[in-house]
Fold:
Amino acid sequence: MQKQHSNYLLPRRLKQSLAVTALVVMVGLLFATSPYGRALEEHIGLPWLFKLRGEIPASNDVVVVSIDQASARALNLPAKPRKWRRNHHGALVEKLTAHGATAIGFDIIFDETKETEHNQRFAQGIRKANNVILFQFIQQKEIFDTKTNKKLPAKHVSLISPIDVLANEAQGISPFPLPKVPAQVNHVVLYKPILNDAPTLPVSMLQLHARSVHKELVEIINVYQPDLAHDLWQTMGSELTDVKRHKGIQNIVTTFRDLFFKHPQLAKQIESYLDQPQHPLNKAQIKMLRALMNIYTAPNSIYLNFYGPFGSVETIPYHQVLNSNPATPSIDVKGKAVFVGYSEQFQPEQKDGFYTVYTDENSGSEVSGVEIIATSFANLLEQQVLNVPSGTLDIGIILLWGIFISLVLRLTPGLYQIPVTLLLGLSYGLTVYYSFVTHYYWLPFLIPLLVQLSLASLLCFTLQYREVQTERQLIRQAFGYHLPVDVVDKIAKGVNHVTTDGEKVHGIVMATDAQQYTQLSEQLNPTALHDLMNQYYATLFTPIRSHDGIVSDVVGDAAMAIWAASASKGHTDQQAGNKHQQACLAALEIQSAVQAFNQDHPEQQLPTRIGLDSGEIVMGHVGALDHYEYRAIGDIVNTASRIEGVNKQLGTHIIVSSDVLLDTENLITRELGRFILVGKQTATTLHELVATNTTKLSQHDLDLFNVFKQGLECFQAGDFNEALNLFTQAEQDGPSQFYVALCNEYIINKPTDFDGSVILAKK
Structure:
C-alpha cells in the first residue's frame, strides 16, 4: 500500500513543485519590476549594505571648501552666505589657485548683480585662475491649463545662469539637479536629457580637472582611429589643451560623449591601450584617462557610493583658505579639485541638507549639496560608482534564484527547512555583500531574501506539512474505524506511542443504550440489522466528534464516549468546564438526532437513553499477549452506565450527575434527587438535562418543573404525604410517576434513617 501511495503522490508532488517555483519567480519579478520593489531595495536594502560595509576613505583628489557659520564669524560676514560680498570669492579663487588647485567649482548661484566693484574683483580672480566652473540653477514651474486652470503634469524647465560678468570668465557653467529638501539622495544626474544632455557640475569639473591629458587622449584615439582624431582637432582646436571660452568644457564633454556613443568599440580599444605595459603614460595620467572614459560612457544618472556620513570628503572651512599663506601652506589642495558651497553639519535653518544612507535620524546630521557633488566627482574619478545590474540581468538573477531556492527547499525534509533556509539566505547575503564591497556591484538584496526566500520557505514547509498529514490520514483511515481519534493520531506519529501504560485524566463519560434493539435483532436479518446500526451509530458519533469527544467503545446497541483533559498537563478549571459543556451539548444533539432518525425509520425506531458522569479515569490499552483494546477504566465508567439505566426507571432520556454540570452554562436542567445506584455506597445527585436556554419552554413545562421541585423538597424532608400531593399533579411526567409510587410505598412502610436519598435495587 505504501508503494502505491508514493506513486500516487509523485505526479502531484511534481506539479506542486512547479507551482511553487512559478509563484516564487512570479512574485519576485513583480516586486523587482514595481516601484514598491525598487523603493524597498533603495531605501532599506541599500542603507543596510552601506552600514554593513562601514565607512571607507574618500578620494584624496577632491576637497570641499565649506561656507559655514564659523567662517562668517571669523571673517565678520553676514550669517546668510548670499549676502557675502563677492570680492571674498575672488580672493578665495586666487588663494586656491596659488595653492595649486586644478579645478574650482562653486555650488552657489550668482544670478544677482549686486555691487559692480565686487563682481569685477570676483571676475578678475576667475579670469586669472582659468579653472573655475560656476553653478547654473534649474528652475521648474508648474504649467496650468488656460481654460480650466488645472495643473498639468508637465513642467516648464528653464536655466538661471550667473550674471554675464562672471559667466563669461568661467571655464563653464553647469547645473546639478537635486530634489527639494528634505529628501533622501541615492543617485545623481550626470546628464540632463531635458537640457539636451547637458553635463552637470561633477562631470564638467572632472573634464576640467583632467584637461592635462586631453592631448594624450586624442593621441591614443589616433592610434586606432586616425580619422576620428583628425576630426577632433579640426572641431575642438585649442579647446582640447587650453580651454578659454565660455562653455568650452561642456563642448568637450559633449563632443567626446557623442563620439564614444557612435563608436562603442573605441572605449574598448583605449582600455586595451591603457592595459599595455609599454606605453609612456604614468599612473596619474592613466587614472585621469580612465576617469574621462568613465564619464563619456556613463549613463545619464548614477547611484552614489557614499564614503560615510557628513564630512567624509575632506572639508576645509572658507576662512582657513582666505587666511592661508601659499608660501607656507597650511592647507593641501595641490593637484586637487575643489568644490565651494554651503556645508554645515548641524544647522536648524539649513536649506541645503539631504538625507543619505548614513544620515543619523537621532542627530539630524545631513549632507550638504556641495558634498554630494564632491562625492559624485570622487566616484567618477576613482571609478567607484555603484554598478547596478541591467534590467535583463536583474530579471535573470531573480529568475534563477527563485528556481534554485524553490527546488532546494522542496527537496529538503521539513525538519531541516529552517536551517537550510538560513543557510541559503546567509550564502546569498554574503555574495551580495562581497560583490558590493569589492566590486561596487549592487545586486538585488531584499527582494531575493525577504520576498522570494521567505515565500519559498513558507510554501515548501506548508506543502511538506500537508504531505505528512496525508500520510497520517492514511493511518487514521485504516485505524480510525476501530480506535478513538486521539489514539489514532498518536499511532500516526509513531508506533512507539502505543504502550500498555495508561494515562490518568479528568474526564466525562457518556453511556448510551438503544431501546427495542433486542426486538429489532430478532425481526431483521443480519445484513439489514448491520446497515441499520451503522446509520444509527453515525447519528450518535457525529455530535460526539463535533464536540471534541471520542468514541471509546461500542457493544451491540450500547456506546460509550469520553471527554478527557490530561491531568499530567495540568488542566485548568476553565478547560475542564469546557469539556463538561461540550459533553452536555453533545448529549442534547444526540437526542435531537435520534428523534430525526426514528422519524425516518418509523418501523425500526431506536429510542436512546443517555447517562453522563465526571471524574478521574485511566485511558490506555488493556489486554495481554497480542490482543489489546483501548478503553477507559475507572469508577465513573460504571457509574455513567448506572446513570444511563436510571432513565428507564424515571422515564427520562438524558440524566447527568451534578459533577457533570460544574462550570457549565446556558443549560436547562432539573434536579431529580439523590440516588444510591446499584453497587454503590454513597448517593449521587442526578439531574435531567432538558435543553439549552435557547429553547423556550412552555408554561405547562415551567409549572410542572416548579411543582416537581416542591415535591422533591418535601420528599427529601420526609413529608411523603405532601410530596405525594405535589407529584400527583404531574401524572404524565416520568420522574413524578416514579416518586408517586415511592411515596405510596414510604407512607405505608416509612424507611428508617431516611436522609432523602433513593436506594435503587435494580439497574
Q: What stands out?
A: The chain is about 50% helix and 20% strand. The first helix runs from residue 2 to 32. The CA atoms of residues 81 and 452 lie 51 Å apart. Residues 1-8 have pLDDT under 50 and may be disordered.
